[in-house]
Amino acid sequence: MNVGTSAVLAHSWLLLIHQLPAKPAYLRVKIWRRLQGIGAVAVKNAVHVLPMNEETQEDFEWLLREIEEGGGEAFVCEARLIDGLSDQEIRALFDKARDAEYAQVVKDARALAKSLRPHAKTSALADVRAQVARLRKRLAEIVAIDFFGAIGRETAEEMISALEARLNEDADVRGKDTAASAASPPETLRNRTWVTREGVYIDRIASAWLIRRFIDPEARFKFVSGKGYRPREGELRFDMFEAEFTHEGDKCTFEVLLDRCGLKDAALRAIAEIVHDVDLKDGKFGRTEVAGIRTLVEGIGAATRDDTQRIARGSEVLNDLYEYFRKKRR
After folding, report:
1. How far apart are CA 280 and CA 305, in angstroms?
2. Per-residue pLDDT reduced to its tens digit, 138-160
3. pLDDT by residue (tens digit) across 242-270?
4. Which of 31, 80, 191, 317 has an alpha carbon within 20 to 30 A of 288's alpha carbon?
5. What percent of the chain is modeled with pLDDT above 90?
6. CA distance 59 to 278
7. What is the signed CA dihedral for 244, 250, 254, 258, rounded to 10 degrees?
């Protein structure tokens, strides 16, 4: 293995090796977009790599499930490089991919800056503001998968910040109350033991908070291996394979719990959109809070490996976030 003067240590990598059926054709496009969204790079045909950590492992596991449900075959393995490609060369592939994406953000930001005229009409400013918000969202998505700190990030950050500063000079913020109304979840979901996979991250932390605060105040949590667990009497599984509550279509577990329990609270819906964007990385809702919440959750994961503590710490964040959305005037 080649080791440069910076004394880069050997890295553990996750490999997703897959084979897709010829039909339906849209499956190939869907999987390709998902791979792009989670930041994976190709090292061989149908072999993609991510740095090894809890979040990337979860990303590959959900993608593996999508491939198998689409009629394909796949498996995920952990690897250390011995010969051929070096760790540094793979890191360079990630940096190259991210720098290309940062460069596109810079290009789009410069074009917006040129189009921004002094004393522009309110409608024109609103259009530019929406485009800048989309750029900021796109930048946050790239940063989330910039595993090794590509050099293009700084320029992209500066360009968008400069645009936002110009727009804020003429900002006219208006809003409205966010209504909150919650339905009562079914009594059959009360006083249960809720089972999920070990190594909880954003969707499981948020779902556990939702369960205990709005669905089952007496909920007890149990953490098990990801596959093969069969529930005992009084247990319900969430965010794991074959669970009673887990991903459905393009919805994360938090969204599924909201829908199935009839929770119509607008503040909870806002949190659901954030959880979705952090967990699935598809930018569906374009929430500006995603980057900050992702950083907080990663900080919780770095601080402790104890799942009960992760849920407790995450619940404090979510309690405050819920109050913010409940009272916020947009």
Report:
1. 22
2. 888 898 899 999 999 999 988 98
3. 889 999 888 999 999 999 999 989 999 99
4. 31
5. 59
6. 11
7. -80
Strands 12-19 and 47-51: antiparallel
Tokens of 264: 């119509």
Residue matched to tokens 């404090």:
316
- DSSP letters, 254-300, are HHHHHHHTT---HHHHHHHHHHHHHHH-S-SS--TTHHHHHHHHHHH
**Helix ranges (DSSP H) in the chain:** 25-38, 54-69, 87-115, 122-144, 153-168, 202-210, 253-260, 266-280, 290-303, 307-327
pLDDT of residue 177: 35
Is residue 103's pLDDT more than 50?
A: yes
151 CB burial (10 A radius; 0-12, 13-18, 19+): exposed
Report the C-alpha gap between 144 and 280 in whole angstroms: 12
